[in-house]
Structures are given as structure tokens and as C-alpha cells.
Amino acid sequence: MQRRDVLRISALAGAAGMLTLDPVTFAQADERDDGSGGGGDGEKTRTVSGHLPTGAPDFVYLPVEVPGGVREIAVSYGYDKPSVPAGTQGNACDIGIFDERGTDLGGRGFRGWSGGARTEFAISAEKATPAYLAGPVRAGTWHVVLGPYTVAPQGMDYEVTVTLRFGEPGETPEPVYPPQRAKGRGRAWYRGDCHLHSVHSDGKRTPAEIAAAARAAGLDFITTTEHNTTSGHGAWGGLWGDDLLILTGEEVTTRNGHVVALGTDPGVFIDWRYRARDNAFGRYARKIRQAGGLVVPAHPHGTCVGCNWKFGFNEADAVEVWNADFTPDDEASVAGWDNTLVAAARGDGRWLPAMGNSDAHREGQTVGLPQTVVLADELSRTAIQEGIRTGRSWIAESSAIGLAFEAVGGRGRHAGIGGRLAVDRDEEVTVRLKVSGAGPDCSVRFITDQGQLYATALPGSGAGTAEWRTTPSYAAYVRAEVRHAPADGGASGLPGRMAAMTNPIWLGRP
Asked: DSSP letters of 154-211?
């Protein structure tokens, strides 16, 4: 690596690897030279190029010395994409920026991150490219951040162009954030999708298009969760209403898994620049909670690079076991989650509620497939979060599906989803599931700490009631699944894709 490319390479305490390049200065940038600089009309430009080898640090910082009087900073970048052998990762590089307040983990200097969704962006006091935060361009050392997500065996050649535009700074508009409460229906079951992406990260829909899709899907609440940025928090003006609660959050997208920060305070940024080996996640899980959010690992068995969850579940408030269309990685997530229920049944820690979200990015990906249906005292941020945290929720592939699940014991005792039926070990318990709207060829399965102990087909209408009798000594918990018919007709012995599933009802005295 050439001297001009590197000042130092180090591992930050508690952070992923970092590489700092030589700083870009603009003292001579108004001189036209060999093409690396240019200027005129109140702007100055510099272009920097370099090479990163395989095994490059997770984050490469390019310091930019910004003088006074700058109205706007604009950045563009590119990198080569050489052919690689089959089965080998090629080049992929993200980008973002921090201002003169620094690059400290969790610090105030964050000004935006677009991942690999954009090749250019601009920031001024009045406005910023989606995924970036408008605000003054103050003098000092800014840092453009490259994130070489994967690097080809040949390495990665990159080029970054920084343009400074001079003039009066203008004023930054005050952000307008969604309210924390909607009219709702009092204590009721509310449907929501808490993992969504717009043009403020790598999504293709606008916030208005997402809000319209949410209403069309019969949702009562949604959460905006852009990758590693909060720029979308103030982009929902006029889109909420008595019928739709909009929560703010973030999909914290690390190299070792993604976590939905669900319902964090508007404008609060949660850092993502660490790996599981850095032992830093607990700190940022606490920051999510301090900002009023829930910690929800997303698609824990996802197959994309960096999607598989490696931080463990000790800090989680819930887990996303169903992400978009139900596929084999969701099957693995449900099985892994069920194992945590078994551990909780034997007294090894608390149980972790399950939820499902669409992770929808663009047309063809359905908002509300799946959706989490939450029992809440009202349609508000705190009430919805409490319903999710306590497991008073179930998951459905659409709002067409309805269900009611309960366990009933002697003397009129009963418990619903997420609750406990406190009866003696040998007392008979009736578990009852009522389903509607599931469609043809669906079946019901009751799952316990022993596995599936009961199954029955629903009538062709997709509506019906299933009952099963057990005791707490035989089943520490019962949860229900509604499944479509297997695509292979059952030849493999594997169940069909999920139509709906519940959190457990716990049986027996604690």
C-alpha cells in the first residue's frame, strides 16, 4: 500500500478495524492541475484514488479539511468490480460521512450513511440527500467513510471526489417527527410492520408510498428502520393519522448481523461500527433502550453477507423469526427461537417473544407480509412496545387472517397469548385456537417443549377451531402454527410455509 494512501492502521478499542488515509486539503484546490483538482464558480474539488487489499479494515476514513465559508459539501465515489472466481466475493463498498465533531463511536459527528445505495450525496444547511442529515457545513476536519464490505482477491481500486461549494449557509429547517399516539380503538389487537426501508436508505419507495401500502395492507402501525441512519425520521409529515401510528427506529447494520432498534426517540442515532468479537453490542443495546426503543435482532439466519446474527440473544427484547416471504432461513429462525423457549421452561433465563416483519424495500415486496398483531391498551408507542416486549402478539402473512388462542383450566381460569395459566402440574388444560381467513389447504399445529403434539386440518374455507387437552406436566408451553400445505405434497416430511403463528401460552405455576 502506497505511503500516500495510508497514515495509520489500527484497531480502535471496542471498534472494528480502521484505516485512516492522508487528509484532503483545499488550499490549492482552485488551481487547475492534472485533473485531481478543479474549481471556479464558487466551488473547489479534489479527487483521491487508492487501492485496498483483501482483508482491508471494515472502515476507511478519508479526512477532509473544510475551510470556513462552505455552503455545501458534495461527495461522489466509485470502485472497480473485477471478475472473481466462482464462489468468491467481489468488491462491494459502502459510504457515509462524519462532520468536524469527530468519528467517535456513538459520537455527535454522524451526518449520514447510504451504504451501497448511492454513488453521490450532498449536505447543506437547508437540505441533504436522503440518508444524510441537513445542517451547517462548519469548518474543521470532516471524514468521508468508506466501508469495504467485501473485497475481491485482486483488491479494490477506489476513487472519491469531494466538492466544496461556497456561499451563505442558509437555515436548517426544524424536523417534524410523527406523534407518539394515534386515536386507535382502546385496548385491542393492532397490526403492524416494524421493519421497512424507504429511499432514505436502500429502499425504492418514498415514505408516502410506504404509508399508502401500510393502509392498503390493513396495518395500524409501522416503524421506519433505515440502515444506519435517522434521516428518515422527519420525512413522514402529513402521512400519519388517526388510523396509522408511525414509530421511528433504525436497522443497525453491523458486519455480524442486523438489529432493529424499534421505536427509538426521533433523531437518535445508534452506531453500527463494531463486530461481535469487539464485545461492544451490550453498550449499544443499552443505548437503544435509553432512547426508548426495543432491541430486536433481525432475520437471524439470513443468508446475505453480514446478515447472520452472531451477538447472541442476552440483550434482545424480541426476535424477528419471520422476515418477508417464509423461506428456509425463517424455518431455521423459528426452530432456534423455539429452543430458547425450551431453555426458559427449564429455568435457564427469560423467554424471548417472536415477531415478524416484511423488511420491504421496493415494489414486489409486500408491506405487511408478514405483520405482527399486538394486544395493546391503546395505539401508542409505549403500549405497542409493551405488547411486543411481553409477547402478547402473533404473526400473520396478511390482515385477512384472524385468530384467537387461549388455554383454559378448571374453575374458569384462562390465559391468552404470552400469558401463563397457573394451574397444578396434573390439572387438565384445554388449548383452543380459532382461525379465520387462512385460505384452503391449511392445517393447525400445536407445538410444545416436546415438539409438535397435535395437528389437524382446517376446513377448506380456512376457518375453524382446533382443541387439544394436555397438562402442565406434559407441556410446559403451547404455541400454535397455521401452515399452508407443503409444496411437495408432503413427500419430504417438511411442513408447508407459515400462514400464521403465535407466541406461547405457558402452563403451570411459575
From this structure: T-EEEEEEEEEEES----PPPP-PPPSB----SSEEEEEEEEE--TTTT--S-HHHHH
